[in-house]
Amino acid sequence: MNPVSGSRPRSPRPARLGVGALIVTLSGALLAPVASSAAPASSTAPEASSATEGWDETAYRGGVDVVEGTDADRKTVTGTVFVDRNRSSAQDRNERGLADVTVSNGRVVTTTDSKGRYELPVEDNMTVFVTQPRGYQVPVDDDNVAQFHYHHLPAGSPKLRYGGLEPTGPVPDELNFPLTASTETRTPEQHCAIGADVQTYNAKEAEYARAGVFADLAERDDYAGCGALFIGDVVGDNLSLFDETRDLTRTLNGPARFLPGNHDLDFDSPARDHNFDTFRAQLGPEYFSYDAGKAHVVALSTIEYPGTTSRYTYGLGERQLEWLRNDIAAVPEDRAIVLAGHSPLLEFWYSDSHRTKQLREIYDILEGREVISLGGHTHMSENLREGDLMAGWKDLLGEDGLPFTHLTVGAVSGHWYAGRQLDAGYPTSVQRDGTPPGVLTLDIKNTEITERYTVRGDDGAHQLSLGLNTPRYRDWFTANRSNVGSAPELAEPLSVSREELAGTWLTTNFWMGSTGSTVQVQVDGGSPVEAERTQQLQGEGVRIGAEWSDPTANLETLPHGGGLVERTMHLWRLELPADLAVGEHTAEVTATDVHGREFTESLTFEVTE
Questions:
Q1: N or C: which end of the chain has fewer CB within 10 A?
Q2: In this predicted model, what pLDDT tens digit does every residue of 96-132 receive, in sequence order?
Q3: pLDDT per position as a tens digit, 551-588
Q4: Which residues lie below 8 Å from residue 518, measured CB to CB, with a gap of 6+?
Q5: Helix axes 551-560, 471-480, angle to 10 degrees
Q6: Which ranges constitute the DSSP H helices of 506-550?
Q7: Can you give the pLDDT at residue 412?
Q8: What distances in angstroms separate CA 131 from CA 278, 284, 299, 381, one per listed residue?
Q9: Which residue ranges have biased composition labelled Low complexity (predicted)?
Q10: Cα(408)–Cα(369) distance, rounded to whole angstroms?
Q11: Burial environment of residue 142 by CB neighbours within 10 A (0 to 12, 13 to 18, 19 or more)
């Protein structure tokens, strides 16, 4: 028997390098860093480990039990899913098989019998994996990477720069999947951490990630059940950095899972079937599913690369689509489905071009289900709700709009680790929609899912940035929009003359704002006035330009680097009263999200003669 598990030595958890957040202070400028603490776990959450003890001591470490075979002509692979009471990764006589667990070869989906046995047809290049059932957890290796799969590629990968898969030889005589009982995955309250686009191009950027989002996750203890899912572009083309990624996941307090993005490809692969061989060898299957609480998480591989040009497309391929259809068919109707892919199914920013090819088939498969869709790829944050509609979607959706919530997850790397260096150990890296880098968490209770975005280095309290869009700012932006990273500073951005008040908006970039959110503004303690959202998502086109831009973000990125923020689906604005007196004024802004949570920030500005 050969339990496949990690063998890298464990290293001590790194000390917290510092905390910081890009927030809007009373001056309205993007500053860094401020002290903050990790958001506490819910008082009703499952028993959780602390960052200093618990998970690291009690994590179920092990691997899949592979009983090597000699028959190269075997047509089926068989094995047992069992409860590994002594955590040895091998089934002992007193360890029972587990019935009704889903196992797949990446196309066919089957469930185990009363003794935990399964049988699947063999394909030449396949990954066999178990879907972690509720109330149980698969083992993790020494780097906290979940172990629930076995790659079968008899001759190994073709010659690849980064190695790919070693030859596996004949089909195993048995392929057994150990599980341990878990209160963390049993409880109906789950917290699923979602990281998009870690995308490190070198070891220095890996340290930025360590000091930022991974340091935040290392301080949290609420995701031991659902774990952390990293949804593609784990690295930036240099696949040797997967080893650095594993160093990062050692710091986590829960299992890590990965799906591939367009920068995780073996670009020298001669065939599509081997595009992600190095990713598979280092991190796991291209696509898979797992259960936590009453949520069924489906991780998809949405990048297709033909191998003849540098271009890639967004799609699942027929084999994966068949698996998705079979996987969802095996999920009880009373479960919420979290559908994650690297590229979003649809999005606002590229609403007329970026879309998954089999979108209609995916919607049909999920019809009637409680679903939330996740994507990354674009390095920005979008919160699109059921019924939202852009002009570029009408050919697919008609006038009905989106069938369920689609979230684009802000990147761990932000705008590719660009911008001003902060004392906290990473750059500002403001993204193209004005959102700072961070991590998304899905808070799930039964089948109700609430999303929250935690800005890197912050405890989750800061959810918006405030600024002034003045005529003087718009002139500066127009003159410098092509000079990101080298533009001159705009002097006194929070100062406006009386004659320009009528053309000045107070702007609120509500990073997780959506249809159903509201933004109210009180100037100098007056009555609250509701601000207007710049994109209503009622079938209009994307509004682009200085008047639709986020001044607070651009005041940081145009001089120092980061994204050009000239369109976003979560910006609100309110024209300032034209009769404001000369002098200093304060605006208090309260943003309320679709779930009824309120966030308040203040902005102080000056009116001059």
A1: C
A2: 999 999 999 999 999 999 999 999 999 999 999 999 9
A3: 999 999 999 999 999 999 999 999 999 999 999 999 99
A4: 530, 591, 592
A5: 40
A6: none
A7: 98
A8: 22, 13, 11, 29
A9: 37-51
A10: 20
A11: middle
Check residue 397 and give its pLDDT.
92
Q: Which contiguous run of DSSP H or E holds residue 228?
A: strand 228-231
How far, in Å, are 1, 121, 406 from residue 69 at the CA level?
10, 15, 44
State how far the Cα of 170 lies from the Cα of 182, in Å rounded to an integer.
34
- Report strand pairing: 2-4 vs 64-67: antiparallel
Q: Are 152 and 122 in contact (CB under 8 A)?
A: yes
**561, 416 contact by CB (below 8 A):** no
Judge whether 315 and 358 are in contact, CB under 8 Å.
Answer: yes
Both structure tokens of 548: 């639709």
d(C-alpha 433, C-alpha 451), whole Å? 18
Residue 125 is predicted with a pLDDT of 94
**Residue 422: which of 198, 603, 215 has the closest Cα?**
215
| Contact present, 474 and 451 (Cβ < 8 Å) | no
Residues of the chain where predicted confidence (pLDDT) is lower than 70: 1-53, 307-310
Structure tokens at 173: 């005589």
Of 582, 576, 554, which is closest to residue 505 (Cα–Cα)?
Answer: 576
DSSP state letter for 597: -
Residue type at 207? Answer: E
List the structure tokens of 470: 């003045």
pLDDT at 413: 98
What is the residue-wise DSSP string for 36-80? --PPPPPTTSPP--BTTTBHHHH--B--EEEE----TT--EEEEE
Rounded to 10 degrees, what is the CA torsion of 575, 578, 581, 582? 80
DSSP 150: E
- Burial class, 311, CB count within 10 angstroms (exposed 0-12 / middle 13-18 / buried 19+): exposed
Pairing of strands 189-195, 438-445: antiparallel
